[in-house]
Design goal:
alpha/beta
Length: 184
């Protein structure tokens, strides 16, 4: 079975694209969680009952899946968020919010002290053969960060020249189809 986990603002229907690439059943996981700990609770039974899975996960969906420590036959990670701590700190800098202020108020807009401390204490990693697709101009994760993550996790890293975080143009989708076909 192939399981697709969408990113923020995405949907399980995006799995349709991958049905033409794989001969196995491809399902889109329709999750509702906004935090890694809720995602793990929401999907725990599914992943415990289905062991032989090829994972395709996008952005925050990849982050959630990696933090669950489930094992997959193979993982295809598209623009994975691999350093949430750095991402949250960047959002705080843009909004002139200090760590002390976030700690005191606990929640400021879409930023949460609990999420920040979780990100500081839980580093994502991959428990399977993994392949990463990354856009050269990804605005959420630097090339240095994704390269280091790929090396530490023995993952391949394929970079789309002029690509961004969100893969959606025909050129980007062709890149993804060819990338998956190369490693599947």
């Amino acid at each position: 079975m192939v399981v697709y986990i969408h990113g923020a603002g995405g949907s399980a229907n995006e799995a349709e694209f991958y049905r033409e690439i794989f001969s196995e059943d491809v399902i889109g996981l329709d999750y509702k969680s906004n935090t890694p700990w809720d995602f793990k609770e929401e999907t725990k039974v599914f992943f415990e009952e289905n062991k032989d899975i090829v994972l395709i996960a996008n952005s925050i969906g990849a982050y959630f899946a990696m933090l669950c420590n489930f094992s997959f036959r193979k993982a295809f990670l598209i623009s994975p968020v691999v350093d949430m701590k750095r991402l949250i700190e960047g959002m705080m800098r843009e909004r002139n919010i200090s760590l002390k202020e976030l700690e005191e108020k606990k929640v400021i807009a879409d930023l949460s002290w609990d999420y920040y401390t979780f990100a500081c204490n839980n580093i994502p990693h991959i428990n399977s053969i993994a392949h990463i697709a990354y856009g050269e101009f990804d605005n959420l994760t630097s090339l240095k960060t994704i390269s280091s993550f790929a090396k530490e996790n023995n993952a391949t890293l394929d970079i789309l020249k002029n690509g961004e975080h969100y893969f959606h143009t025909p050129e980007e989708m062709d890149f993804l189809a060819n990338w998956i076909s190369k490693y599947k």
